Amino acid sequence: ILAQVASLWRVAMLSSGLLRGACRLAARRAPPTQSLATSVRAFGSHGDPRAHLNPDGTRPELEDGENYHDPDPLDHVPAQNIIKERGQKWVVGNEPLGPAELFGCAQENVPFYPRQRLLIFGNHKLLMKAEYLFFYIPTVIVLGLCIPAFTTIYAVDELVATTMTVKVTGRQWYWVYEVESPTDDDEDE
Question: What is the pLDDT of residue 180?
């Protein structure tokens, strides 16, 4: 019964033009005005993030000091579209947002440090220096230590300083051990 009443109410509102008139009034209503500095600083609009600065990177005098970052987050909340028609209040909703507006992070009041040159993201020269510092230099150090170490290990392994040699041959079902007698060079003297 409630669903039927709601659908009849909607049909009555559409036929009398109240809903259409409320939507027209909402469309005619001007958006809230913003100050120039606030509209320029809203980086979510994908404008130039440094447009509010002087050409040398310093801030203008009006935005200097404690007024630069405005601390009230309610300034950035959009006003509701409330329409009064024939004594009735209507809240006109916004049209659905697209994926860019829904999933994109609107960045407002991003701090900007004009004299800081060590910005990593997008700084290709700095990234190349870091790659050399943390990859190539340790690689050269490790190779410089490992190559002489392995050559000495293999050189020690090739020395024959034994008194007896055992030759072991593996057959299919058994092992063959042959012991070669050492040459007695010391006893001949």
Answer: 78
Please give the helix or strand (H or E) that residue 38 lies within, else none: helix 36-41
Q: Could you please report the per-residue DSSP string of 132-183?
A: IIIIIHHHHHHHHHHHHHHHHHHHHHH----S-EEEEEE-SS-EEEEEEPPP
Other CB atoms within 10 A of residue 186 CB:
7
CB atoms within 10 A of CB 40: 18
pTM tops 0.85: no
Tell me the range of 52-56, 62-66, 106-110, 170-174 where mean pLDDT is highest. 170-174
Find, among 100, 89, 69, the residue nearest to 22 by Cα.
89
Judgement on whether residues 134 and 88 belong to the same structural domain of the protein: no
Domain extent for 53: 2-103
Asked whether the beta carbons of 168 and 176 are under 8 A apart, the reply is yes
* Number of domains, the chain: 2
